[in-house]
Write a structure and sequence with these properties.
The complex is a heterodimer of chains A (300) and B (276).
Chain A (H helix, E strand, L loop, with lengths): L6 H33 L17 H8 L1 H38 L1 H16 L2 H11 L6 H8 L14 H26 L3 H9 L5 H12 L1 H16 L3 H7 L10 H11 L3 H32 L1
Chain B lengths: L2 H32 L3 H5 L13 H9 L2 H32 L5 H11 L8 H10 L6 H5 L6 H12 L3 H9 L4 H12 L1 H17 L2 H6 L8 H10 L6 H21 L1 H10 L5
Helix pairs in contact in B: 1-14, 3-14, 4-8, 4-11, 4-13, 5-8, 11-15, 13-14, 14-15
The chains are: A mainly alpha (300), B mainly alpha (276).
Chain lengths: 300, 276
């Protein structure tokens, strides 16, 4: 130990080291989070000099008004489509790449890089490319369909279709990320368990998968599930770039509605309520995720 | 190896390569359109290769839209955010890991709680605060909301906690001040954590659209994603060649960074599994 120093000086050092970050956290995260909660019970408009307490009116509007409800149900539907599809596809891709890695590391690396590319790319820029691909007349997708003798679709302006189109882009964007997580999980499965399973008669690929891979991949799968759900709940960039929530609110989502109501229509109170509902969903998921991270650590 | 197994492998590789091509299709298409003359973009039929590369699309992207300005803004904003995040996070993380003081538990509690708050949640009050301070439509508005990175504090704290106390004590006996220990001993050793955090931070803020859409309306301050939307929504927006050239240029820095430093990149991005 070093020589004892005056206590005041020690305290000042602590303040100097930890103080700025603590103040910044309070001012930029915690106080704003409290304020947005309070605002959600008012009719405050950006720029207004006064406001009134409206109790739960903003929340009631969100869940009873047709547009408000659309944002909630659309977000849930989007998550319900993206989450399972992305997970199944990324698991299949990860199993494939993991198997390829046994006899060709190079090929496995190339495949991994290809699948991860969308994660590294700027989503807004790639969304403008998707807009070109999905263009009703000039787009590659409809031209390929035409070659196959199928009718083209208005992918981004058909009310029944638009949310699924955005979901496909969401899946395209998340597969690589999930595949990396699955590959890490697969690499952690000890080889001797497969030998033991073979002794017990599980030799075919399917049997090996169900008796060894799937059970041991359980914690990883749960983790990927929650991460994907949390990320999907935040869908914003593709909506803002491609549809602005339209047509007729068919692709409106929580974060986009929060942006539109608050920063286009200046309804800070109502936008605050949307924020709190979004926060509730994400908070629940993140708490589950933290539990899983803890479990995964214990697992090892 | 039996014929059946070879066939199995061939089918599997074929499917994986097909999947990879589908994933990469938007990238090929972007490059292809960015090099096509306008009449070929609008011509029916599917051609991946332009008859001759139209480099003027790239020249136009830099001349007609302020693409260079957007890239510069992106670099300034990402650089400033990263600089301040490290400036705030590293000393705090060091104090949490290597000093004993009363508020330590409470501050670490704040860090963990902060991990639960997506940045969308604080947007309205932070916007109000910046408006009060007259800072909207400035670089500051794009940087200030992100200077306190709880994820950064968490990551650095975990790393510093693994440094041996003997090392820190030796430095103290040598008479180094705590500030000097933070920046001259602990921080240089934290290079693995710092590089992963830098990737995480730069990727997040280079690609972000939500906050730039709210905080600035002046095109001269637009970050790359905001900028490309200005371009698309102007009348020049139907000029698809230059638009795709702009998309290529904006996407290039991170994609090239990823291709050159894959391991670091994947670490940085997946480290954020905790806070997407």
């Amino acid at each position: 130990m070093s020589a004892p120093r005056p206590r005041l000086r020690e305290a000042l050092t602590d303040l100097w080291l930890a103080g700025p970050a603590t103040v910044a956290m309070l001012v930029l995260i915690f106080i704003p989070a409290l304020i947005v909660g309070v605002l959600s019970f008012t009719d405050y408009l950006f720029g207004a000099s006064t406001f009134h307490w409206v109790g739960l009116d903003n929340y009631i509007e969100l869940f009873t008004d047709r547009t408000g409800r659309r944002a909630v149900t659309n977000t849930l539907l989007y998550v319900a489509v993206v989450m399972p599809t992305s997970i199944v596809l990324s698991l299949v891709a990860a199993l494939g790449v993991h198997a390829v890695a046994r006899w060709s590391r190079g090929l496995a690396n190339v495949l991994r890089t290809a699948y991860f590319m969308p994660v590294a790319a700027t989503l807004v820029a790639m969304a403008t490319v998707w807009q070109m691909l999905l263009h009703p007349n000039l787009g590659l997708v409809n031209q390929v369909l035409a070659l196959a003798g199928m009718a083209g679709q208005e992918w981004l302006s058909d009310r029944g279709l638009v949310l699924y189109t955005l979901a496909v882009i969401g899946i395209w964007e998340t597969i690589g990320y999930n595949m990396i997580l699955f590959l890490a999980g697969l690499a952690a499965i000890p080889e001797h368990l497969y030998d033991a399973a073979a002794v017990d008669g599980a030799e075919r690929g399917w049997e090996r998968f169900w008796t060894v891979t799937w059970p041991l991949l359980g914690p990883t799968t749960l983790f990927v599930l929650v991460v994907t759900a949390t990320r999907s709940f935040r869908v914003f960039e593709t909506v803002a770039t491609l549809t602005n929530g339209g047509p007729a609110f068919a692709s409106d989502t929580l974060v986009f509605a929060m942006y539109r109501e608050g920063f286009v229509y200046f309804k800070a109170g109502y936008s605050g309520a949307i924020t709190m509902v979004f926060f509730f969903f994400v908070l629940t998921l993140t708490l589950i995720q933290l539990r899983l991270v803890e479990k995964r650590v214990h697992y090892r | 190896m039996t014929a059946k197994r070879i066939l199995g492998r061939a089918v599997m590789v074929a499917l994986l390569v097909l999947g990879a091509l589908v994933i990469l299709l938007p990238f090929f298409w972007m490059l292809s359109l960015s090099l096509k003359p306008a009449d070929e973009i609008f011509a029916p039929g599917i051609d991946f290769l332009p008859s001759r590369p139209e480099w003027r699309n790239y020249a136009k992207a830099f001349q007609e839209i302020q693409l260079f300005q957007f890239l510069k803004n992106g670099a300034i904003v990402c650089g400033a955010i990263l600089f301040f995040q490290i400036l705030f996070a590293v000393p705090c993380a060091y104090a949490l890991a290597h000093r004993r003081f009363l508020a330590r538990g409470a501050i670490f509690g704040l860090v963990i709680a902060g991990l639960l708050v997506p940045y969308h949640v604080t947007a309205i009050p932070v916007f109000l605060g910046l408006a009060q301070a007259g800072l909207l439509n400035t670089y500051s508005a794009l940087v200030i909301p992100f200077v306190a990175s709880v994820f950064g504090i968490f990551l650095f704290r975990q790393f510093f906690a693994s440094l041996s106390t003997d090392l820190i004590d030796a430095a103290r006996i040598d008479g180094l001040s705590e500030t000097a220990i933070v920046w001259r001993i602990a921080f240089p050793l934290a290079w693995p954590a710092a590089s992963a955090f830098a990737v995480f931070s730069v990727v997040a803020h280079w690609n972000d659209l939500f906050w730039p859409l709210i905080a600035v309306s002046d095109p001269n301050l637009a970050t790359p994603p905001r900028g490309i939307l200005y371009f698309r929504d102007e009348e020049a927006g139907s000029d698809f060649g230059p638009l795709m050239a702009a998309a290529t240029v904006i996407t290039a820095p991170l994609v090239l960074g990823f291709l050159l430093a894959q391991r670091k990149f994947i670490q940085g991005i997946t480290a954020s599994g905790l806070k997407g």
